[in-house]
Structures are given as C-alpha cells and as structure tokens.
Specification:
This protein is of the alpha+beta class. 33% of the residues lie in helices and 17% in strands. It has a six-stranded mixed sheet, covered by helices on one side. Strands 7-15-11-13 form a four-stranded antiparallel sheet, covered by helices on one side. The protein has a four-stranded mixed sheet with strand order 8-10-9-14. The chain starts with a helix and ends in a 6-residue tail after the last helix.
Length: 454
C-alpha cells in the first residue's frame, strides 16, 4: 500500500499515515468499525463451530443473531458486513452457498429478505474459482441495502477475461438487455427463512405448484430417518458372525457398500445393540459375553464425548438402537450422490449412519421407490440441496422432507401397478412416466425436467 501511494507521488510520511489510517488488522467480528460503508468485499473464513474456543464462540453468539444451530463462522461475517452498509451500499462476497438452503442459514436468509435486496447471484459450482480445489463450491453474491427486487442470476461462467467482462456488463445493465446471454432475472427469490430457489423460472414454478397442491412426504404417511451413529464404529461394528456377544445383542448392519449395485448385497457387517427393549441400557451383569466384549474396548468407547458426559452410560451408542427398525421394510438412501440412489430393503438390516431411510405404513414402498427415483424428486433435492464437487447432491433428511407426495389412497389402482412395476425393474424412464402421471405434469412441465415422460 505504501509503495503504491509513493508511486502516485505522495511522500513516504503521508503514505505511511494513510496506510495506518486505512488498514486494520484484527478480529472482524469484534473490532470496532467507524461509520457505514458503501462497499464491503471479501471471501470470509470457513470455520466450523467446534474449531472455535468456547468463550469466543459464546461472545460471537451474544453479538450475532444469525449464529444459529451449527452455523459456520462465515455466517456472522455476512451479518456484520450487511450491518455496516450505508443506505444503497452493497456487499459482494464469494462464499460457500450452503447457507442459502440449509437449516443454519435460516436467520440470515430472514435478515436479507426483511432488510436488503439480493441483487446478484452467480453460481460457481464446478467452476475453478480458487487456485485449489474445494468440496463445497461457492457463489458470488451481491446484496444491497435497498428496496428488495428481482435477482439477476448466472450459472457457472467460464473463467476468462472476455466472458467475465460480458457477464459483469449484463449483471449491471439497466434494464436487463435482451442479449444478456445466460443472465436472467427471477422475482421473489427471498421469502423469509425459506431456502432460496435459484433454478430456472419454469422449474421454480413447478416446485411452487406441487408445494401448493400436495402434502409433504411426512404428511402423506412416510417417515424419514437416519441410521445409527455409534461414535466408535471400530468398537461397535464388525463382522456379524464374529461379534462375540449374546445373539439378541447384535443386529445385521447395512452400509453404503452393501447397496452400491442398486440392490442390497449384504457384506456381513453387524452392530452391537446395548439398549434394552423397555428403554435404557441393558444391565451388563445379565450379559457376560457383551460385558467382556465392551470392557475389552472400554478405553476407546469411554473416551467418546457422549460417554464422558455420562460416565455411567459409557457403553451406549450415540443414537438409540431400535431393533424393530431392522425388521421394517425401508428405502435406503446414501447422503451424497450424483443421481437418486434409492434401494429397497425388505426388513432384515439396520441402517448405518451414512444412510437415510424411508418407511411408511401408508405408501407401498416399491411405488414410493419409483417416485423417489424420478426426475421430480431430483428437482426437489437439486433445488433445496447444496451441490458438492462434481455436481453431487446431498439427499439429506431436511431436503427429502421438502418433497411433495399425494396420499396413497388417492392413487388409482392402474397407476399403483405402474409405479411398483417401474421400481421393481429399476426402469428410470418408466419411473419418470409414472411419476409425471402421479403429479399431473403438463407438457411444458415435463419439458422443464428434461423430458416428456413418453
């Protein structure tokens, strides 16, 4: 800075004084800021809460209303930056896009919706925005302190001077020119704490129609869950046949490796069940083999955070195990996938924590599998999920619960048979055809999903 100022003809003394005045080093979330700013520009730090010392985290939480749930440190950076804007001022960040759709971003989305204008969103998924690879790709977001309006959106631009120059011109033009290329405008992107829908306008219209017309997945009688987390898989999980415990203290376990083919091919893993049917943990005095097994691994098991919080329950898994789940037919869904990977399991295995599952006492699970494999489900997940490197989507419970589904009793018998047959044969085209009928998609809506369902 000093060198640049001197090049412009300033004396060293003046250059030093200006640099001292202009440059500040410190904790941006705690340091005082004098006045308001016309522009805030940056790439805020990504730091998970567990990496922040507890007293500092408590101070941040006390100062910033958006430090909600498992919010990453970049969330209060955005809040503080927005609060520092003058009237008409703009914030320009290149930042992870997770907060735009996930749970912990809700309060920040509300803040933007109520007090600011989301002017520009440039999706950088699968775009080499940085010199090194990152797993969760960022977005460039321009948010201004002004009356809310339409949002200009561009997706995955090429990183070269000519392309970016044209993109910048189109994003700033008033009004948006007809030859704006990939830039388009969407109205009402922000909606309180709701996730931002930043896809094409025709797909967004379809999502909104289905949300208005049909109940949610769980309202339609389906339950979404996640498999067991133990906190010490090497201690609690091993080959089922070699787990030397009483027969009722172990369950056959299904993991992502067992369903890679699209069907269940159990690899023989099992998980220890330390829970009693009536609730609470079993008394180890009544299970000598289980006691020997656990005590041989006590150092690892008791060293977990959950065990240290409750030393008398040192041998519990993080999640409670309910054996009845193993006996219940279910659909198994890996967290991260490029395409929907929905596998039917007929009621013999207990899911591991890297699998989500669907059960239902109302819907036929094979018919539900066809819906879950369809382009309609992919649209919901792609719309609400954060995208990962390589275009992979996160099929997490919070996104699956957004799916809309008619009640099974309202599905005609002929369509029920069609759905079940499509899933059983794992015929993706047939799954789409049946799902399009189920939701009553128009020809234009089918085209918006990349096909006509014929």
């Amino acid at each position: 800075m000093i060198a640049l100022l001197k090049q412009e003809g300033l004396t060293e003394k003046t250059a030093l004084a200006l640099a001292d005045r202009w440059l500040t080093q410190g904790d941006f979330l705690l340091a005082p800021l004098n006045g308001q700013f016309d522009f805030v520009v940056g790439n805020p730090p990504y730091v998970r809460q567990e990496m922040i010392p507890a007293p500092l985290l408590a101070e941040y939480r006390g100062r910033y209303q958006t430090m909600y749930d498992r919010a990453d440190l970049y969330i209060p950076f955005i809040e503080r930056s927005l609060s520092a804007l003058s009237k008409g001022g703009s914030l320009g960040f290149i930042c992870a896009d997770r907060w735009m759709k996930n749970r912990y971003g809700g309060p920040l989305r509300s803040l933007v919706a109520e007090q600011f204008h989301l002017k520009i969103y440039v999706d950088m998924v699968d775009t080499p925005a940085f010199h090194s690879d990152v797993i969760a790709y960022p977005a460039i977001t321009i948010i201004s302190r002004e009356t809310p309006g339409a949002t200009r959106i561009a997706h995955r631009p090429a990183i070269d001077r000519a392309t970016l120059t044209k993109l910048a011109e189109a994003l700033r033009a008033n009004p948006l020119p007809k030859n704006a290329g990939s830039v388009r405008e969407l109205a009402r992107v922000t909606n309180g704490a709701e996730p931002w829908l930043l896809e094409s306008s025709d797909q967004m219209a379809l999502i909104r129609r289905l949300e208005q017309q049909f109940p949610t997945l769980e309202e339609a009688g389906c339950m979404v869950g996640i498999g067991v987390a133990t906190g010490a898989d090497k201690a609690f999980i091993s080959a089922f046949d070699t787990l030397d415990v009483e027969p009722d203290r172990k369950l056959r376990l299904v993991t992502t490796r067992d369903i890679l083919s699209g069907e269940v091919k159990w690899q023989g893993q099992g998980v220890i069940n330390p829970f009693a049917e009536a609730g609470g943990l079993v008394d180890l005095r009544g299970y000598p083999r289980l006691r020997r097994y656990l005590e041989a691994r006590q150092e690892v098991i008791a060293g977990r955070h959950c065990a240290q919080k409750s030393p008398t329950n040192w041998y519990r898994t993080i999640d409670r195990i309910t054996p009845a789940l193993a006996k219940k037919p279910k659909l198994l869904i890996p967290d991260i996938k490029g395409e929907a990977h929905i596998v039917f399991e007929d009621g013999n295995l207990y899911p591991h924590h890297n699998l989500y599952y669907l059960t239902s006492d109302e819907w036929n699970l094979r018919a539900l599998q066809a819906v879950m494999l369809s382009a309609v489900t992919r649209l919901f997940v792609a719309t609400y999920s954060t995208k990962m490197r390589g275009g992979f989507l996160r099929f997490q419970a919070q996104y699956l619960r957004r799916l809309r589904l008619p009640h099974w009793r309202s599905v005609p018998e002929s369509l029920r048979i069609e759905l079940i047959d499509a899933a059983t044969k794992r015929d993706m085209h047939a799954c789409n055809r049946a799902a399009f009928k189920l939701y009553g998609l128009s020809q234009e809506e089918k085209s918006g999903l990349g096909g006509n369902g014929d």
